Amino acid sequence: GRTDLTIRDSADCGFIGGGYTEGDEGNGGSIRINKDARCTIYGTEIRRGYAERAGGGIYVAGTLNMQGGELMLNTTGGQGGGIYCEAGGTVDLTDTLIDRNTGSDCGGIYNAGGTVALHHVTIKNNEAGSQGGAGLNNKGNAVLTDCTISVNSCGDHGAGIYNEGPLTVTS
Predict the structure, then answer these.
(1) d(Cα 9, Cα 54) in Å, to the nearest integer?
(2) pLDDT in tens, 28-82
(3) 96 FRET partner, CA 20 to 30 A, in 10, 21, 72, 134?
(4) Of residues 27 and 111, which shows the higher confidence score?
(5) Are 76 and 54 in contact (CB under 8 A)?
(6) How confident is the model at residue 117 (pLDDT cuts 50, 70, 90)?
(7) What is the longest distance spanned by two Cα atoms in the chain?
(8) What proportions of the chain, in percent to the nearest 5, are helix, strand and coil?
(9) Edge to edge, what strands does the sheet with 75-79 contain?
(10) Dist CA 124 CA 97 (whole Å)
């Protein structure tokens, strides 16, 4: 069966983060959302997570809905310092800040074949090593509505967006 988790306004506790994952299962430094699971996050900071392989902040194989809040200062040795969306996963962000995340391949959001919808999202100051798309690396389906992508940097291929899948951008 499906598993649901709701996180509301972490202002009282500060933030969710500081997690560390490594090895073959080194995905999802702060939060890992497995297939058939759904996580809804309201007004929460996800920061200082580390994943050796993917998703320094959040690894998504199921469904992530996030409204408000920030993903910042997360790191991965692989793909998606802020968020990694697996093929078949779904990410829907509204009024969210993706800031100062780092990864070897994409610092902000790495979409490996899932569906990503961003509404009023700011993606800035993210860094990628030698691979492209420090802000967004899209290999799935992505829709961006009224988003700001700025001041991201990488060693190669599109510091803001690196795209290999269907991408719709509107303001």
Answers:
(1) 25
(2) 888 999 999 999 999 889 999 999 999 999 999 999 999 999 999 999 999 999 9
(3) 21
(4) 111
(5) yes
(6) very high
(7) 42
(8) 5, 55, 45
(9) 20-21, 50-51, 75-79, 102-105, 127-128, 153-154
(10) 8
Phi first, then psi, for residue 12 (nearest 5°) are -70, -35
pLDDT grade, residue 89 (50/70/90)?
A: very high
Amino acid at the residue 58: I
What is d(CA 77, CA 54) in angstroms, rounded to the nearest whole number?
A: 7
Using alpha carbons, list the distances in angstroms from residue 137 to 5, 89, 109, 142: 27, 15, 6, 10
Compute the average pLDDT of residues 69-96. 96
CA distance 31 to 61: 11
What is the rounded distance in angstroms from the CA atom of residue 104 to the CA atom of residue 21?
Answer: 16
CA 18/CA 3 separation, integer angstroms: 24
**In the chain, where does DSSP find H-type helix?**
none
Q: For tokens 């200082």, what's the residue?
A: 48
Residues ≥6 apart with Cβ < 8 Å to 96: 66, 67, 68, 69, 70, 71, 118, 121, 122
Give the number of C-alpha atoms closer than 13 A to the C-alpha of residue 142, restricted to the C-beta side: 25
